């Protein structure tokens, strides 16, 4: 489908994004998400038709759930949603670093709020798996309560929840990675999860910019409290020396190819520390079958894509899935599950 892809190339970034959402909301064609049974995967108690999901931030307010569900993704993550609608940061706040195959954004959780998204999700046909990513309002006086309210309000529409503590664009949000703050948040959120029936697996999305000590704090709490899984990782505030685009100097979170190695190594470190106790959705710099497989071999059982989808268009979904299928045939494997974590040691040690 060249429509969204060509729009993306021709328009300014944020207008292109709005145009793509509108086009996708009415997307009439349907790609199969379950064509290869070897790609089906079970994670945190849910069956996914394939391991490739659309990452949070593309359809923040659930405007295009059905169209996105028809692109062949194994799952789509909506959000980040906050309790009240919120305008986000002043524009411009979305920058393409085309020569780097990257994006810098400082959107700041612009979204229509829990109630508007719930109304849209109630009307949607919702054929595929849907994750809902939640966060606090910028001006909230009780950020923990904002997450808890999200679980109560959106549970009927979520297959799983993501607790986003890792956006760099809401001041202070990343402080939730500190041990005591994280423990209090997780305790409250999981209590909310346990009040909902049927149970909604609840994951935490972490930053790729954690040092070893911060990571250990987060993982120790996640294991002790029995979080359902991790999303590794969000955008980075780092700016690798290799970036050539002028927009690299813009403040915000960096995504795409330049964060692939950073976030994939983090997947491997989390996998080696936690094993099967904490299933991982790997995200950051996936752009083709090779990068998707590397995430899985680092230890992710599911993967997500955002920036690669923007640059390569919807065709990237079937390209990645058929590339993974081809690799399983070449290796004579009957399930993708056999690849999960297969190269974790070497990737954690720096291979990539
Ligand atoms: C424009 C933009 C907006 C984003 N908004 C969110 C968001 O609202 N919540 C969230 O958890 N992640 C958000 N992300 C992060 C992505 O979900 C993903 O973690 C990150 O971009 C790394 O993946 P990628 O390299 O495939 O883009 C956003 C990313 C971009 C580029």
Secondary structure layout plus pairing:
Elements: H1 2-10, H2 13-25, E1 41-43, E2 46-48, E3 52-54, H3 65-69, E4 75-81, E5 94-97, E6 102-105, H4 113-123, E7 129-134, H5 143-154, E8 160-164, H6 179-194, E9 202-206, H7 212-225, E10 229-232, E11 253-256, H8 260-274, E12 280-283, H9 289-298, E13 302-305, H10 307-312, H11 315-331, H12 344-348
This protein binds flavin mononucleotide.
Flavin mononucleotide is lined by residues 55-57, 60, 79-80, 94, 103, 105, 107, 133, 164, 167, 205, 234-235, 255-256, 259, 283-286, 305-308.
Structural summary, described in words:
The protein is 38% helix and 16% strand. The protein is of the alpha/beta class and 352 residues long. The chain has a single domain (2-348), classed as Aldolase class I (TIM Barrel, Alpha-Beta Barrel). Strands 3-4-7-8-9-10-12-13 form an eight-stranded parallel beta barrel, surrounded by six helices. A three-stranded antiparallel sheet has the order 5-6-11, with no helix packed on it. The radius of gyration is 18 Å and the shape is globular. The model has no long low-confidence stretch (mean pLDDT 94). The site of flavin mononucleotide has 27 residues, from strand 4, strand 6, strand 11 and helix 10.
């Amino acid at each position: 489908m060249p429509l969204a892809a060509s729009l993306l190339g021709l328009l300014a970034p944020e207008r292109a994004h709005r145009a793509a959402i509108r086009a996708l909301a009415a997307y009439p064609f349907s790609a199969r998400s379950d064509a290869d049974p070897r790609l089906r995967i079970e994670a945190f108690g849910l069956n996914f038709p394939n391991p490739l999901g659309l990452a949070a931030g593309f359809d923040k307010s659930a405007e295009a759930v059905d169209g996105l569900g028809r692109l062949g993704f194994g799952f789509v993550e909506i959000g980040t949603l906050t309790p009240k609608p919120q305008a986000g940061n002043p524009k411009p706040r979305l920058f393409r670093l085309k020569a780097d195959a990257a994006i810098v954004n400082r959107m700041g959780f612009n979204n229509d709020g829990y109630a508007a998204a719930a109304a849209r999700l109630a009307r949607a046909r919702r054929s595929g798996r849907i994750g809902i990513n939640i966060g606090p309002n910028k001006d909230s006086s009780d950020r923990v309560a904002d997450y808890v309210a999200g679980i109560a309000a959106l549970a009927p529409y979520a297959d799983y929840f993501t607790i986003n503590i890792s956006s760099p664009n809401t001041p202070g949000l990343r402080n939730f990675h500190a041990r005591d703050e994280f423990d209090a948040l997780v305790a409250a959120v999981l209590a909310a999860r346990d009040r909902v029936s049927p149970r909604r697996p609840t994951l935490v999305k972490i930053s790729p910019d954690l040092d070893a000590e911060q990571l250990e704090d987060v993982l120790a709490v996640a294991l002790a409290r029995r979080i359902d899984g991790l999303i590794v990782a969000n955008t980075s505030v780092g700016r690798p020396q290799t970036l050539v685009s002028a927009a690299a100097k813009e403040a915000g979170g960096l995504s795409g190819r330049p964060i692939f190695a950073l976030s994939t190594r983090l997947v491997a470190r989390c996998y080696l520390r936690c094993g099967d106790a904490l299933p991982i959705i790997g995200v950051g710099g996936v752009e083709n079958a090779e990068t998707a497989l590397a995430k899985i071999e680092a230890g992710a059982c599911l993967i997500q894509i955002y920036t690669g989808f923007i640059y390569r268009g919807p065709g990237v979904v079937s390209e990645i899935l058929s590339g993974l299928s081809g690799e399983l045939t070449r290796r004579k494997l009957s399930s993708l599950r056999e690849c999960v974590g297969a190269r974790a040691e070497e990737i954690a040690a720096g291979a990539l």
